Amino acid sequence: MLRPLEPVSAAARVWLGIAFFVLFVAAWSWATFGGYVTKTFLADPLTMVREGWELLTKHGFLHDIGMTIWRVVGGFVLAALVAVPIGVAMGTYKPVEAFFEPFVSFARYLPASAFIPLLILWAGIGEAQKLLLIFIGSVFQLILMVALSVGNTRRDLVEAAYTLGARDWGIIRRVLIPSSAPEIAEILRLVLGWAWTYVIVAELIGSSSGIGHMIVDSQALLATGQIIFGIIVIGLIGLVSDFLFKAANRWLFPWRLA
Amino acid sequence: MSKLRIEGVARTFAPARAGGQPTLALQPVTLAVADNDFITILGPSGCGKSTLLRIVAGLDRATTGQVLLDGEAVTRPGPDRGMVFQSYTLFPWLNVADNIAFGLRERGMPEAQRAQIARDWCARVGLTGFEAHYPKQLSGGMQQRTAIARVLANDPKIMLLDEPFGALDNQTRALMQETLLDIWQRDTKTVLFVTHDIEESIFLASRVVVMSARPGRIKADLRIDLPYPRHYTIKTSPEFSQLKARLTEEIRVEAVLAAKGH
User: Fold this and answer.
1) What residue of A is the nearest CA neighbor of B134?
2) Contact: A255, B79; criterion CB under 8 Å
3) What is the mean pLDDT of residues B165-190?
4) Which helix (H) or strand (E) segment is B112 a member of?
């Protein structure tokens, strides 16, 4: 039956994955419908679905979802545009690495959420503050991971390229970047997940729209069904973006699967 | 005039720890390679033969001495000294044709011309039909064929091979040796081929250079007068056996020394 590292069939994998969700909802229903948890603290699944539907149809929740997605994507794209070139430069040239690495390693440990009060002072509670928070939360992580990936490029590939006549720019453009591109894509996928955490935190603290804003409003109304619905929506969007990223990677890097 | 001159090239590696003893990997080596020579450098593992080849390639620097190619000192790697490595070094993200055309593209050759040359070389190394395959889809032997084609497409002055067939099974290795000889005879390239396989060194070479155990130096330099084209059956001829017996003796002494030293 269960053997270490024994592969599982595709069908069994899907069913097992679904089984956990079923179990989870069953446990939730048992706790709520069975009256073991009061409705004030935890809505039952049906209430959650009904309140979610009302959110979408009557309270313009789609607009909130759109705002949140735009903030995440905006802040994340900005961070990636800055981080990837710096990371590649650090991975390629050791002096550049020596210059940036200590600061970036330090900045990486600064909790992004702790910047919120400062960012509100600087940029108010508008969009700039949210984008900046996501930027601060992602950019340092991205830089370090990209630099590491580029720096780990197989030396023998670089040497082969040299003996084929490549000069520095050719090494960067035709060896270092393509060889670490799949890993960079994977890093972007990972850090995008973290960016979602930052955007919700930003919206919880000072915002007039977005999924996080809805969640805070619902708390005031004790509408736990809405809160859970919001959390589930975030999870679903994460799942979809993850799927899109993976599909894009398969399409961009066919040589890895060949 | 010699094509390639290795003049008193020695290599010392810095100690791993501060205050440790530096390691002498290569004693001063002097070797003149004539145009169209096929030289195999034979030696026990760890004797510095790969280090010597890397210095010729410009991937490593000589501590003393210098390497001259057509009278010009080697200071950095370049396309005039194409190298085939023991490890598989095809670019995994490029298909066979693009791997072969890597150096040509680096030179800025137009695409149509590149594709033509890549196709020709695919055919010459027996890879027709595999142009669009990625390295991952190829066997070890096919990857090394591609690696050889990739170097030759660049039309180097000298071709350097560092135990290129070391990771292949015996049958594949024998086939690869014949392919390489075939190409060398038709294209008359100058070749420097490092190996620890005695049979391989005789079968391929017009000249075998034997190196001693670490720190390496040249201890024998043997002309191989077996006629070309060489058929694999030559490996069972009396002349071949004689050469093999002699080289086995030379290498054995060194291998014993190497085993004692480590």
Assistant:
1) A255
2) no
3) 90
4) helix B111-124
Cα distance from B166 to chain A (closest Cα, Å)? 16
Q: Do the domain assignments include residue B194?
A: yes
Question: Would residue B103 count as lying in a domain?
Answer: no
Contacts B133 to A, Cβ<8 Å: 258
Of A82-96, B3-17, B97-111, B135-149, the range with the lowest mean pLDDT is B3-17
Extended strands (E) in B122-240:
158-162, 190-195, 207-211, 218-223
- ipTM attached to this prediction: 0.91
Does B175 reside within a domain?
yes
Quick check: helix, strand or coil at residue B92?
coil
Q: Which of B77, B107, B136 sits opposite A162 (nearest CB)?
A: B77
Give the predicted TM-score (pTM) of the model.
0.87
Helix then strand then coil, in percent of chain B rounded to 5, is 40, 25, 35
Domain count, chain B: 1
Interface test with B, best of A164, A177, A253 (most B CBs within 10 A): A164
Q: How far is CA B201 from CA A22, A139, B195, B210, in A?
A: 67, 55, 7, 10
Task: Fold for A44-253, please state it.
Answer: MetI-like fold (1.10.3720)
Can you tell me the mean pLDDT for B123-146?
Answer: 93
pLDDT at A77: 96
CA distance B72 to B4: 9
B141 domain residue, yes or no: no
The β-bridge relationship of strands B218-223 and B207-211 is: antiparallel
Residue B59's CATH number: 3.40.50.300
Q: Alpha-carbon distance A212 to B26, whole Å?
A: 67
Residue B77, domain extent: 4-83+158-261
Residue pair A192/A72 in contact by the 8 Å Cβ criterion: yes
What stretches in chain A show pLDDT beneath 50?
Answer: none
Q: Which chain A residues are closer than 8 Å to B92 by Cβ?
A: 179, 255-256
